[in-house]
Amino acid sequence: QEFSSPPLQRAARTSFFCVCLPECSSSTTPMDLPTVVSRTSASPAVASKAAELLRMAESRTRMMKTDKKFSSLCLPAVCVELASSLCGEVVSKETSALCVRLSGTSRSVYKTTFSLLQSLLGLQPKHEIQGLAARLDVMAVAKRAEEIFNLFVEQTPPGQQDSVKSNSVYCAAALSLAAREAKDRKEKVKLSEPTMRTLCGYNTTSYRKAKELMEAAVTAEAVKKKQAEAETAQAGDKRKVGAETVSETEDKGSTAPSPQSSPDKRKLSYAEWKQRLLKRTEYCVEEE
User: What CA–CA distance (Å, rounded) separates 143 from 2?
Assistant: First the structure.
């Protein structure tokens, strides 16, 4: 009887969901830092680092308000996720999604705020292949991955090299190609791409594109190397044929009669033949 009228019924349903489902309000109401730390089960080190980042961010927010997608409301959640990465902890996909819900903003606004905060505080992650390979337990292919990465950077226009070096997706693509080459050589290398995607935080589409570009660069370098080897082998064959020709010419020159000696030999042979012929003729005349 208390909730017989429609307005009272709607109010009762609203109060019921707010009491029984408190998490529903977290998707629209931004949480403060202690609440975000508690809900994400962050470690004390992460909590301390997040508080430090939040103080730094709040003192510099005026420089970031020019971006329409930046929101200071989601700074506590952003600082917790960023602090987890800086403390060397793996931020899972579920934890990242929880931070987005606790921020009270959309995912696009959250990601934009996260990137701008990184840029403002100078906390862009240093994408080193050695460190990434160590965390993924694929140090066996780290050297080859660095070679692929450096090759791709060399083939990139100078104006775009800095963006390539600062993007983790290219490090991930280089590691993936190096691991595939190792598997083709029947080496035991196990690379977990989901874990790598979690560590680097790249987009699947951008990862595939980066992988295709790097693969094309590696293929072009392999073709170039084969052409150079073929040209070197061809030049070696030409030098070998030239040396054999010179040797044969020298041998013929050493065995052939000299122009001075050959006429003398021909004269000597004719004189001997004439003398023998005369002797036979005299012998025949004497017998008669």
Answer: 74
Tokens read off for 262: 């050959």
Q: Based on C-alpha coordinates, what's the Rg of the chain?
A: 42
Confidence at residue 51, expressed as pLDDT on a 0 to 100 scale: 92
Q: What share of the chain is helix, strand, coil (3-state, %, to 5)?
A: 80, 0, 20
CA angle 46, 193, 177 (to 5 degrees): 125
In contact, 103 and 26? CB cutoff 8 Å: no
Split at pLDDT 50, 70, 90, the class of 96 is confident
Q: CA angle at residue 25 from 22 to 30, to 5 degrees?
A: 125
The tokens describing 34, both together, are 């202690």
Running DSSP on this structure, what letter comes out for residue 258? P
| Dist. CA 106–CA 54, nearest whole Å | 20
d(CA 281, CA 59): 134
Token pair belonging to 206: 């951008």
